[in-house]
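Pasting as-is:
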Amino acid sequence: MYFKNPNDMLLQERAWNSVCPLVIRLKKFYAFSLKLEEALQSLLESLTCPPYTPTQHLEREQALAKQFAEILHFTLRFDELKMRIPAIQNDFSYYRRTISRNRLNNMNLDIENEVNNEMANRMSLFYAEATPMLKTLSTATTNFVTENKTLPLENTTDCLSTMASVCKVMLETPEYTSRFNSEDTLLFCMRVMVGVIILYDHVHPNGAFNKSSKIDMKGCIKVLKDQPADNVEGLLNALKFTTKHLNDESTPKNIRTMLQ
């Protein structure tokens, strides 16, 4: 409404007063994404360092593995919600236009102390991504592998593929699913599985969908598709649109068909 009535000052004031608290909240989530990036790299370092294998690490440091899983769960949940709210980018664009206009008129608004032009630019790039938190974690994982050249790549990919396998087994085994206290536990497990698949796909040269992949992609997609469609639509979309190698020629046709 405020886009169509730029000369209605009362409406513009109401719009501005509505948008400012949202921008502050968006800044908090952006700042949180930077903390998650740091935390993820720190956890990867602890879960992949010699002399233990990734499986031994996951058994010995279950609390760290749980924290890793919690980060992935939050990330997938955040991005699912963000994809359902396209107004975020419209509101943020309105904020930036208003700030620019006021700067031209030599007006300084209090909120600029919170979200200045440089911060607004960084936030704009972040929220322009369909799945901003996943993008942050994918980049963080890729950087971790690139920066730790002495660490065998397999240490990282094996850690991720092992977590994916554990989640898949838990989801497809009635003995385990019957122990889940609520649907939230089921969703937690599915989000973690999808999260580690996406990270694996970004750091492994051949990706997660290749026949040589250590992740049983057919099995993982099947356990998702066995769930109510409303619960998994966002997760299947994440596999479709935020992975790197799905459309490679080496991806088996049956895998691609399952995700259509």
